[in-house]
Amino acid sequence: MGSHVLDLRMLQNNFSTEEMRSVWNDENRLQKILDVEAALALAESELGVIPEKAGKAIKEAAKIENFDIEKIATEAAKLKHSLMATVNHLQSLSGEYGEYVHYGVTTQDVTDTGTILQLKEANEILKRDTKKVAELLIGLASKYKETPMPGRTHGMQGLPTTFGFKLAVVLSECERHLERLKAAQERVLTGVLAGGVGTYAALGSIGPEVEARALELLELNTPDICWHSSRDRISEYGSVLGLISGSLGKLGNEFYNLMRTEIDEVEEPFAAGNVGSTTMPHKRNPAIFEGIASLTRPILHSVALLHESLMMEHERDAMSWRSEWIALPEICLYLSAQLKSTITVLQGLVVKPENMMRNLELQGGLVLSERVMFSLSEKVGKQSAHHLVYEIAMESTEQKIPFKTLLIQNEKVSAVLSEDQINQLLDPSQYIGLASQKVDEVISSIKNGGNLSE
């Protein structure tokens, strides 16, 4: 029985994926903690800190099937300690070698390193799906790089752009996100096994060797110094995920707006039997778009919570630490749903070029006022042309007279431009600048940058 949206069976798939939930569930969390304890014992046995057989015995015992999570949870509640019950049970399972369980380290060593192991798994999923989004954007941006549509600033039509150019802007963000993930991995996927206050006091001079070997077994990087009180690694990673979420949320919100009845330039995938409203049978709501956009805000709030954990007292405290236990899984879980939904949308997106052109023509050519102005400026000067076209545009808007009609009737304009020239200038498909070229450049950059193949 659940109480959080991530646990409620009727809602959880809107906020996470089963794959990511399996990374952050009780079983995997416990197994990762056990993996750390096993690697520690093996490293210590190899280096002669504990008996050789102790390492093997502890490794054999440190398997999730040997643990009853409900019993461990009940004991943990009695002890009021997050790890001691696990250590106690692992000790009992290790028989005569149980005294060597958790030897020379502290709780935060094990739980931090276990969390990083979970994060390593989550990272592979998030990286994979971000690449998939990028690949789908490449296909759509290329396909629609010359498809004209209204470019809107401040919510209003400004100049023509292309649908492919709009998507390439987000594709460029994805390229940077993949670069950020790659760069962050080296710093973030780092464990720690340094003892009570991080000085290796219990293990002495061999402590760093034990740490390095255990982390090598876990396939994690070794820190230069204990990071119990340095939460920048986790904050950095959360920040990168927040940036990815921001791009997805922006795209979802953009599609949501472009699907409005009055705009109708795109539509999310719709299957027979989908229901938009319990009371309005005709509705085909942008439910997936809304779902994508809705998850960015909670992710960014959780990222902010991670940043608050940077303020830790002395060598460590549990106040900051526990905030990460809340925020980090939520960020990964919400982002997994965002990515999955975005992939679904991009795979089945309905694009309506005819409606894009229709909307470009709604104002009777006003969206091309800049083009007319620059054409006139060759003869009358830019500022003079701006004042002239401004007056004509305002008259067109206020008097409901077609812009083209007023241009043709204006003596100053007709002295410079013929009617045929005016008609050509008011063709939106001919004023998309370097949109197609820039799309190709962005696609070439991400394809040749290596981020999609790594």
Description:
Helix content is 63%, strand content 4%. By secondary structure, the protein is mostly helical. A two-stranded antiparallel ribbon has the order 1-2. A two-stranded antiparallel ribbon has the order 3-4. Helix 5 crosses helix 6 (84-93) and helix 15 (369-380) packs antiparallel against helix 16 (382-399). The longest helix has 37 residues, at 107-143.
What is the typical, i.e. mean, pLDDT?
A: 93
By secondary-structure content and strand pairing, the structural class works out as mainly alpha
Query: Main sheet?
Result: 2 strands, antiparallel
Question: What is the string of helix and strand elements?
Answer: HHHHHHHEEHHHEHHHEHHHHHHH
Instruction: Please give the alpha-carbon distance between the first and last residues.
Output: 40 Å
Q: Unreliable runs, pLDDT <50, ≥5 residues?
A: none
How many β-strands, per DSSP?
4
Radius of gyration: 30 Å
What gross morphology would you assign? Answer: elongated
DSSP strand (E) fraction?
under 5%
Q: Helix coverage percent of residues?
A: 55-70%
Helix segment tally: 20
Strand order in the largest sheet: 1-2
